[in-house]
Design brief:
Layout (H helix, E strand, L loop, with lengths): L5 E4 L9 H17 L2 E6 L9 H13 L9 E2 L7
Parallel strand pairs: 1-2, 2-3
Length: 83
C-alpha cells in the first residue's frame, strides 16, 4: 500500500489573504501535485470574535483567482474542536 502525502492550507477568516498566504497555498498545491499527494483546505474559524463570512468568501475568491483547487469538502475547524 502506497501512502499519499497530504498537504494543506489553513487560513483564518479574520482578514484578507496576503502575499505570504498566496505563496504558502501555491507551494503546497504544487508539492501535492508533484508528489501525487492530496491538497486540502481547512478554514481556521475558531476565533469567533474576528472570523467573518465575508473574509472566508474572499479566501475562496482569492484562491480561485490564483488557480488553486483543493479536495472537497473544505474542513471547518470549528466543526472539529472535539476531535
Amino acid at each position: 500500500m502506497v501512502l499519499q502525502p497530504v498537504f494543506r492550507f489553513a487560513p483564518s477568516p479574520n482578514g484578507y489573504l496576503h502575499l505570504g498566504h498566496a505563496y504558502s497555498a501555491l507551494l503546497n498545491q504544487k508539492r501535492a501535485h508533484d508528489s501525487g499527494g492530496r491538497f486540502l483546505l481547512r478554514i481556521e474559524d475558531i476565533d469567533l470574535e474576528r472570523a467573518r463570512p465575508d473574509y472566508e468568501q474572499a479566501i475562496y475568491d482569492d484562491l480561485e483567482w490564483l488557480g488553486i483547487s483543493w479536495e472537497s469538502p473544505v474542513r471547518r475547524q470549528s466543526e472539529h474542536i472535539a476531535d
